[in-house]
Amino acid sequence: MSIIIENEKKSEILSFISDYYKDAYGSRPRGYNYHLWSLSELEAELDRLEEVITANMAQEEIWERASVRAFNELIVKTISLGAGNRKTALRWLFDGSGVEEQVGYQDYEHFIYQQGMLSTKEGDAVIKELVQIYKN
Known about the structure:
Elements: H1 3-25, H2 39-83, H3 86-95, H4 105-114, H5 121-134
């Protein structure tokens, strides 16, 4: 492989490494001398970062499922403590969350974020319920 082609390939991989590193660890890489690495070392690093991202995604899914389960248990407990129904339980939990100053969509999202369910279908469903509860 010619030096020009190899340098272009390394430049392309370095761009991916920067993006993948941020996806894997939340920040751009610092303190690495990637520009000194060989093409095969860079490719191996890219593969390693892909594995970290995949593992992180799997862990996030586990946490989200646990959060949904915990939220549903909290709803049931709140109903049993006197709310009487899901709608009232949601109102009590939302009002008690400290997010209610300006009831609006972002507030509902923040509440769902606090529950660990942002970007889940269950969280989206609860947001829709909150919109209906507070639309008046």
